[in-house]
Amino acid sequence: MDRKELEKVSDFLLGDENTAYAPYFIGKSYLSLLNSKEVIICNVTFEPGCRNNWHIHHGGGQILICVGGHGWYQEMGKEPQLLKSGDVVYIAPKIKHWHGAVADEAFAHLSLSVPAEGASNEWCEPVTDEEYEKLK
């Protein structure tokens, strides 16, 4: 998908290719830091089929505000949720989860890191192609 198409997914800045976190993603994503004072807010845009690995937020949690396209969110042991623009997902600390785009459409969400002392991310295993291809 070319950059001009990706810039149309949401009204927020697309940002740069997310190379810093690329080892924790399958596919290509883009990251735009929107705010770094008190609450970190980023716009994350996923190319079609892109998803991040299973991961856990320790300390503070995370809030996703969907701003374009369609995507998936899944907590370990639960059914995946189809996401669309306007959906909001609160992810409590210590919940193993992943999120990303549907197979045939780009997806963008704002990611808000809930502030907490000693907050950190634990990156886990990838969402396998077999797991991902079962999503409907």
Automatic annotation (TrEMBL):
This is Cupin domain protein. SUPFAM superfamilies: RmlC-like cupins. Residues 44-108 form the Cupin type-2 domain. InterPro entries: Cupin_2 (IPR013096), HNL-like_cupin (IPR047263), RmlC-like_jellyroll (IPR014710), RmlC_Cupin_sf (IPR011051). CDD domains: cupin_HNL-like (cd02233). Transmembrane segments: none annotated.
